[in-house]
Amino acid sequence: MLNLEEKRISRHKRVRRRVIGTKEKPRLSVHRSLKHFYAQLIDDLEQKTLLSYSSLNPSLKKKEGGKNTLQLIEELGKQFATEAKSKGFTKVVFDRGGFPYHGRIKAFADACRKSGLTF
Fold it and tell me: Where are the beta strands (DSSP E) in the chain?
């Protein structure tokens, strides 16, 4: 019997067969751990990471006081989207990494959409 992490990985592998990022439309890959949240823009054809952000960012740590986790993730999504737009990326392919689309994943995706990313 598979544990939860093995099930998530098998879901992610199944989705990754179809989801491919290019230079014009990179893959927005997200990962959440128990404490932190990570997001990357990836060009799968050249196998390069174009942009990377996490909840460990010093600029996000300064704003941490008095905010709950979802508010911090929304702030991370806004910063990520503005940085991606400044580098010329407006359309992305969203890869939720096998995680269910709710909670922190949904908050990050909604914040990115509000800030101008299209997926």
Answer: 27-32, 37-43, 48-54, 93-95
